[in-house]
Amino acid sequence: MPPNTLKDQANAILKWVPMSGMLDPVSLQLFVAICEHRSLTEAAERECLTVSAVSKRLTALEQQIGTPLLERSRGVIQLTVAGESLLPAARALLQSMERIQANLTEFNLSSGGRVRVVSTMSALTSFLPEDIAEFKKSQPDIQVCIDERISTDVAKSVEEGRADIGICWDLTGTRHLETIPYRQDRLVLLVHKHHPLANKTSVTFLDTLPYERAALQGGSLVHQIQQRLAIAEGKALQTSIFVRTYDAACRIVAANLACAIVPSESAHAWIRNYGLQAIALDEKWAARNFVLCVRDKLTLSFSARNLLEHLTMAARADRVAASNRSIL
After folding, report:
1. What's the whole-model pTM score?
2. pLDDT tens string 231-243
């Protein structure tokens, strides 16, 4: 069973380390990268090293520990029992070192800290940029690094310590993370004005099944939900167009090649400039709640805690403003 507490993880590392030497953090970082990608080539690209350099580091680490950590069979990399034991402990050690470095940075008045944020495309194309821009006005020395991922990868990145704060859909598996309500949006069906559904004011998902649709690449949660619902009805999605961004999906709709289920925020400019129709999607999952997720608020760096608090307060203020508008 993998170690659970930091003490257990530290002990798990120590049992592999000979008394004559300490493990090299760089080698541990490479080991973790190989485990995450299951590829020496991709790990080398991520760490900006050659494959031969990564291989030598791994061999040296295995020799120091005295046991193989990885097995290669038919081009597939698998962890040995020792590798399975070392991986969570190595992640914990690297995260602790990074946390120490981040916290010490706070004492350097000439430089702010660094916060790693991973977010879904929906948040990045609507409310998140403005919230971070406001944060930077009061904290210009804090570097905010943003990486776009699908919701499931957001949660995984935070859980594995590759990001400090994640923004994802609350339907994502975040049971191992602390979550805070953030923002809401709504999915709509975007169609060309000559589409057969263009005159509808609202549709169900079943109403959309007969029609060709554009979908995001990379297994987005929205597309996964559509696939599961179609299978439950014994039908197949009519999807032959896959794109990387919502803007590209809207462009496909503008050419009347397909319809698309997109966030209402992403559709506004296309509705205004291209005369497209946004139709309400009468499904519970069309109303999306986004959350901020972290591994543990108490172990965040000072900079990350500042950003988390700012995003929480910005979302709270937005909900209050929306409530006041509805009353008026």
Report:
1. 0.69
2. 999 998 999 999 9
